[in-house]
Design goal:
Layout (H helix, E strand, L loop, with lengths): L2 E6 L5 H12 L2 E3 L1 H11 L3 H9 L6 H4 L1 H17 L4 E4 L13 E7 L2 H22 L17 H23 L11 E4 L5 H12 L8 H20 L6 E6 L2 E7 L3 H12 L6 E7 L6
Parallel strand pairs: 1-3, 1-4, 2-3, 4-5, 7-8
Antiparallel strand pairs: 6-7
């Protein structure tokens, strides 16, 4: 059966659409629980994983590879879910990790701009009310809360900053622009569709033969999941590592490692279930011009 990844613009109802699709199909619906699982498995605070898959990379990230490490942990946990099939995933980064796996329907939800603006403004009002309660004004009417209500112009700026942060994240880690519609099999604008209608459209698309699981497409998913597990195992000590897999054979490409480290790398990879054979390619670290 197919897998669905649902990406969305910030402050768009992607979660609601994904949950309705999963309910109609009887699929597992996952999102933030993947972060919890990765946090527990790799002993990394969940908030750090959330920042890694949400925030724009910092200047320091470019030298410490902190974001790449945490994204690798998240990727391994997510692909572990996806290889079990019958899953709807909503959240950041899902479509980045499934490559050309044919039984994955990659969906982009485009929210109605007026609804997105209103949601930003409502959330700001909630924050103002919470601030009032914390400052000794419990029960205060919203009109009495200090601070100016957010204008539509300010809400639009918030949306722009949020969307741009997600775009920069994809460009930094994968060289992929989230605004590029070719990344998705379906782009669903909600200007004239309700979330129920959007879910119906997605379910109809999933019936196409193109998105049914085959032995070949399932093997492709399992190869991606195995490569992700090996990378997560190695990346703490070797942040420049790249891993590919094919039916139990794993290719490890590493820049900056020495031949004396090669056997330790191979030993670590052998500990990952599913690894039958290991090929390594080590290259000297090349300093940028």
């Amino acid at each position: 059966m197919p897998i669905v990844t649902v990406s969305k613009q910030s402050y768009s109802p992607g979660k609601e659409v994904a949950e309705k699709v999963a309910q109609r199909l009887g699929y597992e619906c996952i999102s933030g629980d993947v972060l919890s699982e990765a946090s527990e498995e790799f002993d990394v605070p969940e908030i750090e994983l959330l920042r890694a898959v949400r925030d724009t990379p910092s200047f320091l990230d470019r030298f410490t590879f902190g974001k790449e490490r945490r994204v690798a942990y998240f990727q391994a946990a997510l692909l572990n879910h996806l290889q079990r099939d019958n899953v709807v995933y909503h959240g950041l980064a899902g479509h980045y990790f499934v490559g050309e796996v044919s039984h994955v329907l990659k969906v982009r939800i485009i929210g109605k701009i007026e609804d997105r603006v209103q949601l930003v403004m409502r959330r700001q009002d909630v924050f103002r009310q919470a601030a009032a309660s914390m400052s000794g004004m419990p029960g205060a009417a919203l009109a009495d809360v200090p601070g100016e209500p957010m204008s539509k112009e300010d809400a639009l700026r918030v949306l722009h900053r949020s969307d741009e942060a997600r775009r920069k994240w994809g460009l930094h880690l994968y060289g992929i622009d989230t605004h590029d519609t070719s990344l998705y099999d379906m782009v669903v604008p909600l200007n004239h569709l309700s979330t129920d209608e959007a879910a119906d459209v997605i379910c109809v698309a999933l019936r196409r033969d193109r998105f049914q699981t085959t032995a070949r497409s399932q093997q492709a998913m399992e190869d991606l999941a195995l490569a992700a597990r090996v990378k997560a195992r190695l990346i703490e000590r070797h942040p420049r590592v790249n891993v590919a897999a094919d039916q139990g054979t794993v290719w490890i490409t590493l820049e900056g490692a020495t031949r004396s480290e090669e056997e330790a790398i191979r030993d670590a990879a052998r500990e990952v279930p599913g690894v039958n054979k290991i090929e390594t390619r080590l290259y000297p670290l090349v300093a940028p011009d």
